Structures are given as C-alpha cells and as structure tokens.
Amino acid sequence: MFSQILQFMFSGVTVGATYALAALGFTLIYNASNVINFAQGEFIMLGGILTVFFFKTGLPLPVALLLAVAIPAMVGVLVEKLAIEPAKGAGVESLIIITIGASLVLRGLVQISFGKGAASFPAFSGDAPINIGGAALAPQSLWVLGTTAVVVLALWLFFNRTVAGKAILATSYDPLAAQLVGVNTQLVLLVSFALSAAIGAMGGILLTPITMTSYDVGIMLGLKGFVAAVVGGLGSGLGAVVGGLLVGIVEALTAGYVSSAYKDAVPFLLIFVILFFMPRGLFGAKTTERV
Amino acid sequence: MKRAHAGLLVLTAILLLLPLVLPNAFYFDIVNRMAINAVIVLGLNLLIGFAGQISLGHAGFFGIGAYASAILTTHFSWPPLAALAVGAVGAALLALAIAPPIFRLRGHYLAMATLGLGIVISIVLKNEAAYTGGPDGMSVPPLTLFGFEIYGERQWYWLFAAILLFSVWACQNLIDSPFGRALRALHGSEVASQVVGVDVARYKVAIFVLSAFFASIMGSLSAHYVGFVTPNAAEFLHSIELMTMVVVGGMASVYGSVIGAVLLTALPQALATFEGWETVAFGVILMVSMIFLPKGLVPTIAAKLGRKR
Questions:
Q1: From CA A44, how far away is CA A226, in angstroms rounded?
Q2: B-chain residue closest to A83, CA distance
Q3: Which of B171, B204, B234 is a domain's end point?
Q4: Do residues B255 and B229 both lie within one domain?
Q5: Which of A93, A226, A279 is opposite residue B54, by nearest beta carbon?
Q6: What is the C-alpha separation between A44 and A42, in angstroms, rounded?
Q7: Chain A residues with CB-CB distance to B under 8 A?
C-alpha cells in the first residue's frame, strides 16, 4: 500500500518537475512581456528531438545536450524578434494567436525534417532502478529532479543576486519605469525568451529517456506547463514549481487509482477547480482592475 | 442596411452559379466543407469578434454535435433530426452551465479555461470506445430528412448553401438588432457598456451558448455528410483552425467569416501533397495576419476602399 503510493509519487514528481520547468518558462516570459507563449511546449519538444538527432549523428552525449539547449534558446530569440516584436501593442488575444502560429511553424518544420516517429536516447546513468521503500526509482528521475532543483536555485540567485536579474524583475513590475532608470527592456525580452526556451528544452531532454519524444509531444507538455503556471498563479516563480509538482502528482495518482486513460484530462479539470475557487491561482498576485 | 442586402444577393448569386462551374464531385466536396466551416466561423466570430471573448475549445462543441448524431443514430437508432437536436441542445446547455464561471475569467485565464474544455471533451471521445469507437472513430449513417435521403455531394451542396445563406442573413439581422449593438458595445468597452445599462454577463453567456449551438449543428451535419467521425473533430488543432479562419477573414465581420473559411479550407487541399508544410503554412498565416492585418482581410480591404462595414 505504502510502497504503491510511493511509486506513484515518484512518477508524479518526475513528470511534475518537467511541468515545473515548462511553467517557469511561461512565467519568465509572462513577467517580462505579459505574453503567454503558447510555443513553450515546442521548445520542450525541440530539446528532446534535437538531442536524439545529434546523438544519432555520433556526437558524444554532452555535446548533443549542449546543442539541444543552445539551439532552442536561439529559436526563442528568433520567435521574439520575428513574431512578438513586430506585433508591439497588440492585445492579449492577438499575442496568444501569434504564439500559437509560431508553435505550428516549429512543429511543422520538425515533422518535415525529422519525421513523425517516436524516438529516444539512453538514460544518462543506466536503467537499473533504485529500490526505495519497496518502490522503484529510475536513475533518470533523479537527474530530472536534480536538474530542476539546480535550475530553480540558479534562477533564484539570478533574480535576487545579479543586476541583470533585477533588471528583468524591474521590467516585469513596470516596463516604463525600468526603461527610465536605464534598463534595456528590449534586451530583457530577448533574454527572457532565450532563457525560457533553454529551460523548456532541458525539461524535454531530461524526460525523453523516460517517455520518448516525437514531433507532437509539445502540445500536451506545453499545455500542462501552462496549467501548472496558472495553478500556481501566473507570474509567480514559486507558484510555477509548486503548480508543476502538484499537477504531476495529481496526474500520477489519477493514473494509478482512477483511470490511466483519463490522466491527461486531470490537469484541465484541476484548472477549472482552481480557477473557480481561486481565480488568481495559488500564489498569484492580488491585483485590482483599473478602469 | 441596403449594403447588407446587396451582400446577400451577391452570395446567393454565387451559390446559385457555382454548380455550373464546379467540374466534379471533388470540387463540390471542397465547397461543402467551406460552407460547413463558414457557418461555424460565423458563430465563433460573434463570440470572438463581437463579444471580444476568446475561445480555444470551440471544436469541442462541434465534436459534441458530431458524436451525438453518430452515437444516437447508430447505437440507439434515433431519427437523425432528433439526434441533431439533442446534440445542439446538449452543447448549448453545456455552454450555459460552464459560461458563468468561465466568463468571470478574462484574457489568459479565459483562454486556458476554454482550451481545457475542448481538451476534456476530446479525451472523453477518445476513451469511451464502447460508444465512440475510440481514437479510430466510427461511421455515421446517411442523413434522412422526412423520409428523403440526402445523397451525394450535389444534394448536400444545396442543403449547405441554404444553411449558409440563412446563417449570414441571421447574423446580419442579429448584429443590427439591439442585441447586436449591445454586443459591439461590449467589445468596445465593457465598463462603458455596463454604465449605459448593458447586462454584460448575460450577453456574453447568450452569445457563447448561441455559438456552441451553431457549432454542434454543423458537427452533426458534417458527421452525416462525411459518413465518419474521429475524435480529431474535437481536437485542439481543429479549434485553432476555426479561430484562424475568424482571424484571417476579419474579426467582427460577417463576410470576413465566410472568406476566412473559404480560404483556409482551400489551403490544406492545395498543400495536401506536402506533408507537414500544411501546419507550417497555417502557422505562418496566423502570425503574418495578426502582425500585418490585425483586423483581418475583409475589414482591412473595406477600410482601404474607403467604405465602412
């Protein structure tokens, strides 16, 4: 009984960590620009797909990993430059539609160049499970959790201890005021997109040895990351992490005890419940609407 | 008002003359699909364009209609019209039930909630395989109206043409009615319309229910027409396609809805041989039209011609 729950928690926390990374990506861009980037899921997909591609060309895994993080980061910059920047001043709905457009382009291009099949690469440190309290934990799960923890810590340090990070925070509070004190808000936007794409790609890479990847995994992973960000409260970094883990755990418990067929519906039902009772999410800022 | 009549006359003329130029059933089929999409997009445009409410889950309502018809006629041998009616009323009731909490949300949260709705519907369709045939879909018997079976692309063409004409006419009347003026006021400024006495919440709910109703009916008809349904009908991507049609044609434009549907239904046909490029093209069109024609084709062209629509 206990070991069973533990088993479900392990798998929940593992996917949850990926959702948390995706949610952090949403949060970063949302804070810098008030844009919800519906292409976030495609960065996750790109991370996995590119690693597989470079690994198969014979590059050593570390090099493949590096490229698979760097390229999505550049793609993120391109998306900002080509799609978000020209649409300056557009409304929330228009920006949502533009990023959906960007995600379709990325997904289509990957489908054309890498095909439709599912692919994977070997786990970083073997497949022999570690036995903890009667439950099996895959070594790759530790990689997922460890990397997520490192990313969260690094982000926290970046935002609280560096000038660049504080400039981004300043932009998220008030872009005009930030500009007045000399923050290059344009650069902040670019950095946010690059950073959030890189973080998303990392999530995609880490998850691939566990769940495989293909050109179309981005939609679901991205949407669940978005759910996690909304559950935690849009714009809150802590909320993104808690939201991600919560979504992952609820999903795994549903898959285990209720129905594995309906596990994908869980995040979306969860979002209804949370939004109706706490319209700003768990850790969302309380704002009053100005007329 | 007169211009509206002129538009209807032109559309009628086109619909009457088209069968003379369409060479074969393949082209009739494409035009039929255009008409199906046009009617859904008219409803969706009322919601997005006039009421200013984004919906990323509209294909869900289309799916409800399609599967209501498929399941009730196949498993329970209902007459098709009754199944269609039950689907449409069901979709409308669902919209009515979820609308009040959903419309308390706005912007990103509203997008999320409607998106979630669509996804949950498509997951249910995929999983209840005993009734829906699961991911493989199920076949649907042909449509019989008052003992007369509608058969072949040409007969369907007249049915769809009639429905399209009626919908365009109904939308124009609706927009020119006090209800429509209230809707436009809503899009302009919610606060201002509230101040002058528009019951904002009620109008949003009404238009959401109406557009769900439209989408469900077209879902039913298209299921009978194609003779087969799959859960793809309710998928996120289908919702995006419908929204693209609204955006490209022109938000808050009746003829924009029709033109958007025509263009974007034709596009996949033109690109069908290049797998994957279809998705890329959709994405590029979405971005380019939002960036360069944020108002959409028809309103932009109308403004260029110096006319007001």
A1: 13
A2: B287
A3: B234
A4: no
A5: A93
A6: 5
A7: 36, 83, 86-87, 90, 92-94, 96-98, 100-109, 111-112, 219, 223, 226-227, 230, 234, 259, 261-262, 264-265, 267-269, 271-272, 275-276, 279, 291
The model's pLDDT over A268-291, given as tens digits with 9 standing for 90+, comes to 888 878 777 777 777 766 554 444
For residue A102, the chain B residue with the least C-alpha distance is B283
Q: Do B113 and A275 touch (CB under 8 A)?
A: yes
Residues of A in contact with B119 (CB under 8 A): 223, 264-265, 268
- Judgement on whether residues B250 and B169 belong to the same structural domain of the protein: no
Q: Where are the beta strands (DSSP E) in A29-163?
A: 130-132, 135-137
The answer to whether A275 contacts B105, with C-beta atoms less than 8 Å apart, is yes
CA distances (Å), B5 to each of B1, B12, B308, in order? 7, 10, 15
Spatial distance between the Cα atoms of B298 and B248, rounded to a whole number of angstroms: 9
Chain A partners of B191 at a C-beta cutoff of 8 Å? 291
Residues B218 and B96 in one domain: yes
- A285 versus A122: which is more confidently predicted? A122
Is there a domain that residue B270 lies in? Answer: yes
The candidate with the shortest Cα–Cα distance to A234, out of A181, A190, A189, A172, is: A172
- A79 interaction partners in chain B (CB closer than 8 Å): none
Inside any domain, residue B145: yes
Answer whether residue B6 is part of any domain: no
Cross-chain residue pair A275–B287, CB shorter than 8 Å: no
Q: How far apart are CA A25 and CA A269, in angstroms?
A: 22
Q: pLDDT for A180-227, tens place per residue? A: 888 888 898 899 999 999 999 999 999 999 988 988 888 889 989 988
Boundary-marking domain end, from B180, B212, B234:
B234
Strands (E) across chain B are located at: 138-139, 144-145, 148-149, 228-229
Say what the ipTM of the complex is.
Answer: 0.85
Question: Where would I find the H helices in A35-130?
Answer: 40-56, 61-79, 92-114
Structural domain span for residue B198: 40-234
The structure tokens 């925070």 sit at A169
For the entire predicted model, the pTM comes to 0.86
Cβ–Cβ below 8 Å for B113 and A92: no
Residues B232 and B138 sit within 8 Å (Cβ to Cβ): no
